[in-house]
Amino acid sequence: MKSFHYHRPTTAADALAALGVPDSAALGGGTDLLVTMKEGLTEPAHLVDLRHIRGARDITARPDGSMRIGGAARIADIAAHTVIREKFATLAEAARLVGTPALRNMGTIGGNLCQRPRCWYFRRGVPCLKNGGSGCAAVSGENQYHAILGGGPCHAVHPSDPAVALTALEATVELLGANDARRSVPIGEFFDGAASNARGETSIAPGEMIEAVELPAHSAGGAQRYVKLMQRGTWDFALVSLAGVKRRDGEVRLVLGGVAPGPYRVNPSVEEDVASGELDDESADALAERALYDAAPLSKNGYKADQAAALLKRAMLALSRA
User: Fold this and answer.
1) Which residues contact 15 (CB under 8 A, 6 or more apart)?
2) Separation between Cα atoms, residue 245 and residue 61, nearest integer Å
3) Closest CA to 109 of 72, 139, 138, 143
4) Model confidence over 236-250: pLDDT tens digits?
5) Which residues, in sequence order, are bridge partners of residue 229?
6) Number of neighbouring beta carbons within 10 Å of residue 204
7) Average pLDDT for residues 77-94, to the nearest whole number?
């Protein structure tokens, strides 16, 4: 690992000034960034620790039912937060299933959303779109854990559990840039272009940082679930995951993880049919098949389509009766 300068700002202005220096990188818990530095995938000259900015770790429940989660809030604190567990249960469960206790107590929500893919070709320096090459070695290689939806030219899946839940909850990512420039990016757009962006998987621009994640009041309550299938049963990344929400107004949202370069929201027409009334097994089977109509498994990951269909069917049956 190359040497670097460490900076620990206490104000957003100081942090943004530091991030404006060439070859700077934002640091949260470091559970992924430091690994990519050791692997030689990134070589920042300046690390800007965002955890000590005033208010960056705050989790605030507002009177209107919405919530604001600071970009440096720890995953463990999100999982344990009383209001999140009560009103945004899919996020609490997704956070609870992240990695190990040690990782949850170090990792931040901002860092979790911005972590890099765990593709073994990318991580081992095999030339590909994400590390200075082109194409995707997984297409004709070992692709057991790669995308079956939305892939190409990169077929790596995004590893974040909270991102899947946040997409089902219609969260927005609040970005802060130089000169106090703010952008609110819907989480559904935050990962746009992840399969084709050689620089990363998110829409964060150079010099920006995640100030907070906002949860809307209309997503609070209702019926919520998060299910994660793992190879080892615990402390692992998702083979396939699913966040399902039936809001108090009756709207249903279904989002898959582990199957695409970013969280994959099911076609809204399928969600509408789930919301329309109680389903039977046959109807749920048909809707799950329709939800996965665009799936294009690679040579060794067709099992993901079966797993996704099973998770979708269970969620559809449960939410249609909620």
Assistant:
1) 9, 26, 48, 50, 53, 209
2) 20
3) 72
4) 899 999 999 999 999
5) 240
6) 21
7) 98
